[in-house]
Amino acid sequence: MRIRALVATVAAALALTACSGGSGAAGTSATSGAPGVTGDVTVFAAASLTESFTRIGKDFEAAYPGTKVTFNFAGSSALATQITQGAPADLFAAASPATMKTVTDGGMADGEPVTFVRNQLVIAVAKGNPKGITGLAGLAQPGLKVALCAEQVPCGAAAKKALEAASVKITPVTLEQDVKAALQKVKLGEVDAALVYRTDAQSATADVAAVEFPESAKAVNDYPIVVLKNAPNKTAAQKLLEWIRSDKGMAVLTQAGFQTP
After folding, report:
1. I need a surface site. Which of 21, 197, 212, 248 has the fewest CB within 10 A?
2. Residue 189 CB: number of other CB atoms within 10 A?
């Protein structure tokens, strides 16, 4: 009887241990989520991505508790220079392959950049289009004040291509360092028109109207993105890049007016 009781006790203990171990393994599987996806992620991104990326960043933080996404929005050429000069960043999203090339040529990219969206130009004018601008030729009318991005900025390079395609020459009253600054000139009434991205005009419909023009098809900008070689938080940066390119991220971007590659 004592032997049978001892065997039963050992069997029960072994069964309890097995159940406990199985439960622990299942618990780890259910709660681990995405191991290592935590901490701060710093993103350098073209100014035209401000609204879309801000929303995507919040969605990502909600999906991955413990992460914090910080953005540096500016002209792509300025951001590329900051990165090559050693500014700490995890992810770079540029508004043109040319500005991305500055980073890849400097050996700062971790892998090959991928194009995730495209963008086209429109003419931003005051609500109601008081100057009656219907195309690029209208920007050359006497006395009209026009803002452009500087040529080294992607929106400026695209504007140059579009104007050349239309054989239109204008003398802008100001050359801005990013597209948001050019748009702001229209919003404040300091200029009559500006060549900006469709997405930026769409984000400011309360203040400006957008005039489409066919030559914009000659100057479509590809937007490449890449994790940086010296990223302080490479794991989370890679996961954020995947989120941006996922259906959820692309839904935000296309709603803002960006085109899929």
Report:
1. 21
2. 10
Place of tokens 């404040």: 188
Cα 211–Cα 53–Cα 210 angle in degrees, nearest 5:
5
Paired sense of beta strands 221-227 and 174-176, if any: unpaired
Q: Residue 237 and residue 228: Cα distance in Å, rounded? A: 9
β-strand pairing of 91-93 with 114-119: unpaired
Dihedral through CA 130, CA 136, CA 141, CA 143, nearest 10?
Answer: 70
What does each C-alpha distance from 30 to 8, 19, 24, 55, 67 come to in angstroms? 33, 16, 10, 28, 19
% of residues, the chain, pLDDT over 70: 87
Whole-Å CA distances, 216 to 90, 94, 187, 221? 32, 19, 22, 10
- Long-range (24+ apart) CB contacts under 8 A made by 112-116 are 112/226, 113/224, 113/225, 113/226, 114/224, 114/225, 114/226, 114/245, 115/222, 115/223, 115/224, 115/261, 116/223, 116/224, 116/225, 116/244, 116/245, 116/250, 116/253, 116/261
The C-alpha torsion from 241 through 246 and 249 to 255, rounded to 10°, is 140
pLDDT in tens, 24-52: 333 322 223 466 799 999 999 999 999 99
Q: Which residues pair with 90 in a beta bridge?
A: none
Confidence label for 192 from pLDDT (cuts 50, 70 and 90) = very high
Edge-to-edge strand list for the sheet holding 174-176? 174-176, 146-149, 193-197, 121-126, 208-211
Shortest CA distance to 43 belongs to which of 197, 227, 247?
227
| The residue to which tokens 């029960």 are assigned | 12
